[in-house]
Amino acid sequence: MKSLIEAAHQRIRPHIRRTPLEYDLQLSQRSGANVYLKLENWQLSGSFKLRGVMSKVLAVPTEERSQRYFVAASTGNHAAAFAYTMHRLGLRGKVFLPEGVAPAKLSFIRSFKVDYELYGQDSLQTEIHARRYAEQQGAILVHPYNDPLIVAGQGTIGLEISEQLPEVDSVIVPVGGGGLISGIGGYLKGLRPDIQLIGCQPERSPEMYVSLQKGHIIEESITQPTLSDGTAGGIEPGAITFGYCQQYMDDLLLVEEPEIAEALRWSIQNRQMIIEGSAGLSIATLLREKMQFAGKNVVLIICGKRLSWEKLQKIIKEG
Q1: What is the full DSSP assignment across 96-147?
Q2: I want to staple 172 with a disulfide (CB 3.0 to 4.6 A). Which of 3, 116, 134, 282 is the partner?
C-alpha cells in the first residue's frame, strides 16, 4: 500500500493542494493533547475526495484518457471532486447522486456543467446503479472508495502528515465507506505501526461499525438522517476498505448528533470556519475521549467544508 500511495502522490501533486496542518491552541488546552488540524476543507474541490479522483483518473494513460467516458456516484463530495476533475482535465463524464444530496454540494457540481442524475435513497443504491451503468456503457467507474487507486489517493494525506508532523502519535479520521482511513492507515501504519488510528462515525449511520462488529459487510440499510451526510450510507458488498479497516484501524467510535452539532459550532465560534458534519466527527471524538489523547500529538482530519444553509441555520439556532 505504501508504494501505491507514493506513486499516487507523484501523479496528483500538480493538481491538488498540499493542505496545511495547523496547531490549535484551544483544542489543545481543552484536551491536554497537542492538537493539529489537517485542513482538507481547504482542498481545491472542498474536500479530501479530490485526491482519490485525481489518482484514479490520472492513472489512465494520457492517450486513452481523452477518448474514454468516466462515471462516478456520491453523496456529494466525491461528485464535487469528480466534476472538478472532469472540468480541470477537459474530460467527459457523468455523476450519479442520491436524491437527498445536500443543496450546497449539488450547486457546486452544477457549476462545472458535468452531466448528473439523481438516483436512489442512499449512497449504496447510487453506487450500485453507477457501477451497472458504467459496465453497460463501457465507461471507467471512479468509485468513491472501493478501488485501490482511490484509496491510494486518499493515502497521500498520511504521507503529508508524516512530513508535516513526523512525531505524530494519533490520527482521528471520519469514516463512511472507509476509503479515507484505509489510505491514511495504509501509509502511516506502514511507516510506524505504533501510530494510533481512530475512526469516528455518526451513530445514525453506523454501517462500518456494525459490519466490523459482525465480521462482514452488512447488506441492510440502517442509516437515519444525520448532520454527517458525507459519511452516511451503506458499504458496497466486497469493498476492499472493509479489510483495510480491520487491518489498520485501532478503534471505531460512534458520535451522537448533539456532539457533531457542538463541534460545528465550536469551529464557527473559535476558528470562524464553517465545516461539514463529517468534519465535525473528529473534533467531537477528541473532546469526548480527551483522556486517552492527553499528552499525545494528535491530528484531526477536517475532511470537508460543505454544510447546507438549512443545517447551518439549525445549528446556530439550537446553540
Answers
A1: EE-TT--HHHHHHHHHTT-EEEE--SSHHHHHHHHHHHHHHHTPEEE-SSSS
A2: 282
